[in-house]
Amino acid sequence: MSQxxxxxxxxxxxxxxxxxxxxxxxIRALLEWDERTIMPTAAGPYRAEQIxxxxxxxxxxxTDARIGEWLQQLSATDLMTRPHSAEATTVRCLxxxxxxxxxxxPTLVEEISRQSILGQQxxxxxxxxxxxxxxxxxxxxxxxxxxxxxxxxxxxxxxxxALVDEYEPDATTAQLTSVFAALREExxxxxxxxxxxxxxxxxxxxxxxxxxxxxxKFGKHAATQIGFDFSRGRLDVTHHPFCTTLGPCDSRIxxxxxxxxxxxxxxxxxxxxxxxxxxxxxxxEQFGLPPGMYCSLGIHxxxxxxxxxxxxxxxxxxxxxxxxxxxxxxxxxxxxALDEFVSAVNTVRSSLIRVEADEATYNLHIIxxxxxxxxxxxxxxxxxxxPAAWNEKYREYLGVExxxxxxxxxxxxxxxxxxxxxxPTYALGNLYAAQFFQAAEGALGDLQPLLATGDFRPLREWxxxxxxxxxxxxxxxxxxxxxxxxxxxxxxxMAHLRGKLQPLYGLD
Length: 508
Prior knowledge:
By secondary structure, this protein is mainly alpha-helical. Helix content is 65%, strand content 3%. The chain has a domain at 173-505: Neurolysin, domain 3 (Orthogonal Bundle).
């Protein structure tokens, strides 16, 4: 066998092994989707054991000694000469995953998996009953397990780095702190000016009779229009919206409905559809391999936030969709003018619920969680003291305080599912989204006339060319520079917010 044939055989063996592991990962994801949508409540404990078994098998395959041998053989070959090629990306990213996974004991993987499923089930009940006390012991276990994971993975500066790295590779706490501080420095004065403005848009039109069946129909229509392919996906109901991918032609999005409030479901659908459009745009022939996987969760969130906010809250978007919304919800919106409605969905108001927050204050919700997570992991904050710390930060950053735990410390599913380190990716997503949208307009010209006629294809195809098709061939911040010609900055997001909100609130 020639050297070339040997390299080809080794690479093929590696890819086949990883692709088969990916099938197991999607089977686990299917069980998790079922658990969060339609599974009977009583099935919870057994489902936790099912997922634990799968997690053990998957971890065993990811740490198979043969992977280390294959990667070692390939790392010194010509496959690595083009760093952004599919082959080099596959070797580089799998080496990173192998190094991380081999540091984590199988027993810890199993226990985190088990407790994350039990934690989610407990969270649903705890939020419903406004009962933090019952949920507290489970969260204490999860925090302890994530501390163990951080210690096993290793870190240079702080334990939280090891957890953030799982979701946003190479990002550090120090780096994120610096980025968020720069954003906050300009955001806070804008929010202060808005609060001082005499012009206060009303949101009354968003409250009324919005039948759930009509919301579902209208939401699916809008998702289809912007590019989500329902022949390769579906929409379901859950307690906390999410998107998951179960295969190259199976993207599942979810939402939750409020028959008395328009925004919850609709913008949730746009958000999750943005995730789904990204997943559907990845190279399907590389599914399960790094070139066919999303770049990072920050990049993933950029796509959900771009479609939800930069597109979905624009005046142009509603020039096209508002007549259809009035037809769907005539009793609630029939007498409401377009400009009044657009002002309502862009109103800036300190609020309790992250997923319902406006574009401007949303980032403060993330910064609060970012700071609390660090404190939980470094041990300076006990889980028992988390509700009080939560309320204190909400008073400090947003000037509001939840009257209960359900809309306070229990409002998010992430901690119950052991996803500590995930939250910063939402704020990163906002930053990336604004920078990408600015770059798209630089390439395509003013997008507003296209959006106003319901023509979303040019933007979607540009995103596909610049972002989706590359998978993990570029690191996140490298991709941002490649797409926009500039390193990641808060400036495009602030320009977007000022451009929209200063006229709305009559600011100079």
